[in-house]
Amino acid sequence: MSAEVDRARVQRRTLTVVVLSQILGGAGLAAGVTVGALLAQDMLGSDSFAGVSAALFTLGAALTAYIVGRVTQRSGRRIGLSAGFAAGGAGAIGVVIAAVIDSPALLFASFLVYGAGTATNLQARYAGTDLALPAVRGRAVSIALVSTTAGAVAGPNLVQPLGELALGLGIPALAGPFLLAAAAYLGAGAVLFVLLRPDPFVLARELAAGAAAEASNSAVGQEDASTVPRPGTGAYIGAAVMVLTQIAMVAIMTMTPVHMRAHDHDLGDIGLVISVHIGAMYLPSLLTGALVDRVGRTPMAIAAGVTLLAAGVTAAVAPADDLALLIVALALLGLGWNFGLIAGTALVVDNTVPANRARVQGTLDVLIALAGAGAGIMSSIVMAGTSFATLSLAGGVLALLLIPVLIWAHAADRRVSLRS
Q1: Which of the listed CATH numbers 1.10.10.10, 1.20.1250.20, 3.30.420.10, 3.90.180.10 matches domain 7-213+229-419?
Q2: What are the two backbone dihedrals, phi and then psi, of residue 319, each rounded to the nearest 5 degrees?
């Protein structure tokens, strides 16, 4: 396509396709968040292994983020994202089969593959920024994220009916949500593969190459590594923001269903709390994106740390039988993650160019996923050795590390500016 292509028209089409895929992708990721830990707990008969599910999801997400980033850099968003969602759907099918035949080994392997859907769902947010102008990148990210809300909020509230459906099919009740996840992820992949044309990443790179008149970068997938610019410092600061918010969010979220079931909350209560949490992760995105563009990336990243601290404190002091306070805590947890993800994503996009963007995005999302994996493992160990309150406080305090990181980055930028 020529440089005269109407960027705004293609951007609108891209956002429409991304919205459709994210609605489906949100329904797919909700299964693991809501019942993954409970299914592992039931099959292994120990609370100590409950956090393994989140760890495997995120390890799978890390591997997928790396692969999708590389595939996208070579072949574009359409191929990379559709393949990632297809892998997530296959993993969900594997979880159902593992539950039916009572195979922990297959369950863990399937959790790993299922994590591909989570990574791809997050990677899709970048597709909305490929053709977006710098002044509206925060809003472009937010449109992709907010569209996840419909499926992500509906999914946890379908836990009980899906469980009943699964029982009617001779499948364990806790595997029921993974039936929905399989259909949702495969559907999201199909939407992207069929409709994401023209590919926004490929077009953005062609336009950038034409504008710069760089013949060496004009052929898709043929960059010379020696001429590809390095990402700016802000990309790594954005990664740090997303990593810390991910650790705090995953640690508390993973063990909340286990904590609630241990205090006699039923699956309906658990589904409600998790659906509010996921809604808070995605629903405020349009407002957050506008604030990131208007107020700035750094202030919103600081707001993420403060909000996550509030979530940890609220979860720690909430009586185990107080459903309302648990809802408030998990809502704050989702909101803090939302602030951090959108601010961090905007920083990454601001400090990369099409010649290195997809590769850098994939690599940084690997770090985010690995951080989540570590948080999933440590959350069960910390809770088994101490309490849910201690775990929640630790997650909230950890999020405050965002503030010194951002202060250091700001000071470093000022020193560079003074020298230049």
Answers
A1: 1.20.1250.20
A2: -60, 145
Question: What is the C-alpha to C-alpha distance for residues 132 and 119, in angstroms, rounded to an integer?
Answer: 22
CA dihedral 107, 113, 114, 120 (to 10 degrees): 170
What are the residue boundaries of the structural domains of the chain, listed by start? 7-213+229-419
Q: What's the average pLDDT block by block, 10 residues per block, for the chain (420 residues)?
A: 66 92 84 76 71 76 88 92 96 93 91 90 86 85 81 71 87 88 93 94 82 50 52 84 92 88 82 85 90 92 94 92 92 95 91 85 85 81 88 90 78 54
- With CA atoms as reference, report the closest residue to 185 among 351, 30, 8: 30
Contact 136, 280 (CB under 8 A): no
At 198-223, the pLDDT tens digits run: 999 998 888 877 666 544 444 444 44
Burial class (CB in 10 A: 0-12, 13-18, 19+), 319: exposed
Give 321-356 pLDDT, tens digit per residue: 889 999 999 999 999 999 999 999 999 988 888 888
Count the Cβ atoms, other than its own, within 10 Å of residue 266. 11
First-to-last C-alpha distance (Å) of the chain = 39
For residue 354, whether the previous peptide bond is cis, meaning omega lies within 30 degrees of 0, is no
Which residues are CB-contacts of 387 (< 8 A; sequence separation ≥ 6)?
none
Contacts by 403-406, CB closer than 8 A, 24 or more apart? 403/302, 403/305, 405/237, 405/240, 405/241, 405/244, 406/237, 406/241, 406/298, 406/301, 406/302
Amino acid letter for position 314: T
